[in-house]
Amino acid sequence: MKPLITRSCLAIGLAVMIVATGPFSAEMGVTGVQLAAAEKEKPQKTRRVPTMSEQTYKKLSQAQEFMDLKEYRSAMNVLDIMLQRSRRLNGNEIGQVNNMRGFVYFSEEKYEKAIEAYELVVGQGEDIPEGLETTTLYTLAQLSFVTERYRDALRYMETWISKANNPGADPHIFMGQVYYQMKDYTAAIKQIEKGIGIAQERSLTVKENWWGLLNYLYFEKENWDKVLEILEILVHDFPKREYWIRLAGIHGQEGHEKEQVNAMQAAYTAGFLDRERDLINFAGLLMQEQVPFRAAVVLEKGFEDDQIERSAKNLQSLGQAWQLAQETDNAIPAFEEAAGLSDDGRIFERLAQLYLDDDQFEPCVEASDGALDKGGLRSIPQAHIVKGMCQYNAAQSKISNLNRARKSFVSCRNEARKDEDDDNNQRICQQWITYLDRESARLTQLQASL
């Protein structure tokens, strides 16, 4: 029994956080966006840009007040009037106005319009502060991603990386997400691994979703060694049920039965296997690995904790585990309860065999009748054999009982004759009939001599 791994259970949801700043942040130095993507700073040449006039500053402040009140249309009116008089504005001022316009459009979720405005910002080239340029490039990359303009997103991010100071891991993770959306998994893996490598070099935390995306990408490329390697990291650093289940599933898929069981055992010990199908699968793996007693204990606890439904199928699994563990006294109650909930003759068939093994002959006969009545058996002749053996053993000294057993073996022989390939059961049943006839004759002679 190997838990199935489906692509849907490994699917990863991706989200992008759009970061936008106020119109004056770029003139005040390094922005929040830059700090998020560059953990280390190095000296940078200061760019000389045209000075903002007092009148422009006042108008931008007025627009900013409207924005603070979320009166975006009023803010846009102020900005549009400013651009109508753009002949009076220098490149820096035009960039600042369009930066604010981009933020207004972004706030209104008009992303295409926001992109147009931000493109006008970077279009001012050397006239805008370097901080504003890099911030806007980063924002353009993210907005392009949101609007599914993936090649633009890559282009803007690559430009941003070329201008940024010691860029960190985030830009490469972002590019990996873009390539993932483009289904270029090889390029996506390269970027994600580069981002993780940068984070590790700087002793920074590698985020769970980075490993998750990388794991998914290797899964799509069917590189199972890498999938297992990353899952080992995930279960160690971010222990969760789904990671343990995936780890066990991939080990099973690759034929690593011992590792599969060990992964499920670790998950069980940690309390992650709290769903019915998890516990049933784990018990099945334990029986497959020939440790049925542990399987039975797992199932029993699952029933006790109300994690496993007391259905006929589940109770039958418990009975099978106890039976394989040669714990007949525990197996019988499980099969009895299962039989009471089911019309499946096979459950009664197993129960009859257990009663025979436990020398409970009359219950064995009743269970055999139940099996034959309900049908669906693996072997009808075998059911008659078990019934006949129980009838014989119930009272070997009574001729009437021997006759009752003989009828069962005759039924067995008749059923076996219907199958031309069932010579073995025909022979066994005929041997029993011959033996019972001799016993009946012997008992009749014995009674006559008394």
Task: Explain how this protein is built.
The protein has helices at residues 7-10, 32-37, 54-68, 72-84, 91-107, 111-122, 130-146, 150-163, 170-181, 185-201, 208-220, 224-237, 241-253, 257-269, 276-288, 292-304, 312-324, 328-340, 345-357, 361-374, 380-394, 399-417, 423-449. It has 450 residues and is mostly helical. The radius of gyration is 38 Å and the shape is rod-shaped. 42% of the residues are buried. The model is unreliable at 1-43 (pLDDT under 50).
- The number of distinct β-strands equals 0
Detail the poorly predicted runs: 1-43
Strand content range: under 5%
Q: What sequence of helices (H) and strands (E) makes up the elements?
A: HHHHHHHHHHHHHHHHHHHHHHH
- Average of the residue pLDDT scores: 87
Helix fraction by DSSP (H/I, runs of at least 4): over 70%
Major pleated sheet: none
Please tally the helical runs, counting DSSP H or I stretches of 4 or more residues. Answer: 23
- The radius of gyration is 38 Å
Structural class: mainly alpha
In short:
The chain has helices spanning 7-10, 32-37, 54-68, 72-84, 91-107, 111-122, 130-146, 150-163, 170-181, 185-201, 208-220, 224-237, 241-253, 257-269, 276-288, 292-304, 312-324, 328-340, 345-357, 361-374, 380-394, 399-417, 423-449.
